[in-house]
């Protein structure tokens, strides 16, 4: 048999370290495993992950609750066992049709799954370049929180310069970002948070901070053009009391509705209420868009936006990072450091 006729072995794909959820459950089921490195396709790039950030969506997909989400992500176990949405890192490979990015570009973005790993495959429409002034950890903390805040305030809420906005739940990842985005849009910001978070939230530029431990914002005298609700812990009738007659209520959270439907009942209630009242009542479903990532990068480059990071964990301690977010009451974002990266020099923050 000639050498040409001999069976040729298939080369093994390179592997990488990743955080895997073999089934639905709590953060305790997460495992550190070696898995095949993703192969890029058309319109995609491969990113060496420097940092990833935990968001509430990671918790929902890990637990598989509400159960309704399993219809899209796997009935018995996750379709993609490598979890994680938000990341920042370096482009190491580009696929056909991804010419706008080159190897070596520092980028950040969001994927449906796979960010808690050494490498992640990303469609170019979910990617933007890391702006000068942000570290990789800060860039990783920006996509989910930033796009949720931006779309909730600007797109759904229609927030304009000179208007008054109240942000209920201003101390979490979305909330701390929303305070800064609202200020960048020229709004007067009232922020609601717990006692231990008031000083941090105030330092982000909030004009007024209400400690929910000592005051009920729905009984305060103020009236707001936009109310961004990130908690869902107040009745709609109570929230409407502090809305201007033509104000907009934007809900990015929901009152608990059980393991089966979760906040879907709340979402339906918000929409139905909007049909019978003069005020606008809208739920928010964030959709990843490169244009929004680039807008947020612009704010960061101007010194108007800097993610708040409460904790950093190495990749092997990802379970602890996810568990911290799942417990609730986290301040800002929790970040997983995958590959160390030299810190960037940040410009001085503009005075508020």
List the helices and strands and how they pair.
Blueprint: E1 15-20, E2 31-36, E3 44-54, H1 56-63, H2 70-73, E4 86-94, E5 106-110, E6 119-123, E7 127-129, H3 136-140, H4 143-156, E8 164-168, H5 173-184, E9 188-193, H6 198-203, E10 208-211, E11 224-229, H7 236-241, E12 243-251, H8 258-261, H9 264-274, E13 280-283, H10 290-301, E14 309-314, H11 318-327, E15 333-337
Parallel strand pairs: 8-9, 8-11, 9-10, 11-12, 12-13, 14-15
Antiparallel strand pairs: 1-2, 3-4, 3-6, 3-15, 4-5, 5-7
Helix pairs in contact: 4-5
Could you explain how this protein is built, in words?
The protein is α/β, with parallel strands linked by helices. Helix content is 26%, strand content 26%. The protein has eleven helices and 15 strands. The protein has helices at residues 56-63, 70-73, 136-140, 143-156, 173-184, 198-203, 236-241, 258-261, 264-274, 290-301, 318-327; strands spanning 15-20, 31-36, 44-54, 86-94, 106-110, 119-123, 127-129, 164-168, 188-193, 208-211, 224-229, 243-251, 280-283, 309-314, 333-337. Strands 3, 4, 5, 6, 7, 14 and 15 form a seven-stranded mixed beta sheet that branches. A six-stranded parallel beta sheet has the order 10-9-8-11-12-13. Helix 7 links the parallel strand 11 and strand 12. Helix 4 packs across helix 5 (173-184). The longest helix is centred in the middle third of the chain and has 14 residues, at 143-156. It is globular. The termini are far apart. 47% of the residues are buried.
